[in-house]
Design brief:
MetI-like fold; globular; mainly alpha; about 70% helix; about 0% strand
Length: about 290
């Protein structure tokens, strides 16, 4: 196991320790060469990360709110979509394999390709989405989705389209593990489709759905590629999620210490759902035994 341990130490542990140490210093493009001997500022970077703001007027606390809203809202939207999609292909019928494959198309497209495609669709006047909404009278053809407050909804819509299949895959795997005899017994007892869903299927999938919700929320929270590619730099303040804010602070403003402090704050925040994830895994192991 030593080669794996060494790789983990080099890729994970060492950068983490460097980030923690840098977060207590004042390191920018002028003091980077003297990194070890840079001025010690203590917790000033953490205070500035939480209370201050960058050129976009978005602090780490503000970006945290955007990230939480984005991840939770996306998960809440894709969950019923994924469950319904899994139910449509759970039973055997002609063409089921093709439909299952079509469901996975948005999920397998690389994120940067998805971001570029939807960026073009959201363009004013020429974008496909604006033209479609204008044709049915729901929006003006010159609506600007990529700037201002509407950019948050543009990012959310794109994320929903791209990743709803994750919930679909998780739920479908759980549905396939339910013995068909349980459905037959429920039918003999006179249960209709809704009763079979609520009293036979969902109770057995409760733990799996909770795990899918947790993993989905964590994935959306850490999504950097979509807002970075879709909106460029500097992005609108409404889409400055925490990972993007860390990047802008570190590599656009060259305030490496402040970026390190924001990274450590992010890690601390992610430890909370990570704890629940590990706890769910242990409970699953105990249940399976």
């Amino acid at each position: 196991m030593w080669p794996n341990i060494v790789v983990v130490l080099l890729i994970v542990a060492l950068p983490f320790l460097i980030a923690v140490y840098t977060s207590f210093l004042s390191v920018d493009q002028y003091t980077l060469r003297q990194w070890v001997g840079a001025p010690w500022v203590g917790f000033e970077n953490y205070v500035e990360a939480l209370a201050g703001s960058n050129v976009l007027s978005v602090s780490a606390l503000g970006s945290l709110g955007i990230s939480v809203a984005f991840s939770v809202l996306t998960t809440l939207i894709i969950t019923p979509i994924g469950i319904l999609a899994a139910l449509t292909v759970n039973t055997s019928f002609r063409g089921r394999a093709l439909l299952r494959s079509l469901y996975l198309v948005p999920y397998v497209i690389p994120t940067f390709v998805t971001a570029l495609l939807w960026r073009m669709m959201f363009l004013p006047n020429t974008g496909l989405l604006n033209r479609a909404l204008s044709a049915i009278g729901l929006a003006d053809v010159n609506t600007y989705w990529l700037v201002g407050a509407k950019s948050f909804w543009a990012m959310t819509i794109t994320e929903v389209w791209a990743v709803w299949a994750f919930i679909y895959i998780m739920v479908l795997a759980g549905l396939q593990s339910i013995p068909i005899e349980q459905y037959e017994v429920a039918e003999l007892d006179g249960a209709n489709s809704w009763q079979k869903l609520t009293r036979v299927v969902l109770p057995q999938l409760r733990g799996l759905i909770y795990l899918a919700l947790l993993l989905s929320t964590l994935f959306h929270f850490n999504n950097f590629t979509l807002p970075f590619v879709m909106f460029g730099t500097p992005p609108p303040a409404a889409v400055t999620v925490l990972p993007l804010n860390i990047y802008l602070t570190s590599f656009n403003l060259f305030d490496f210490s402040l970026g390190s402090a924001m990274s450590v704050i992010t890690l601390i925040i992610m430890l909370v759902p990570g704890f629940f994830y590990l706890r769910m895994l242990r409970l699953g192991e105990v249940t399976s035994r």
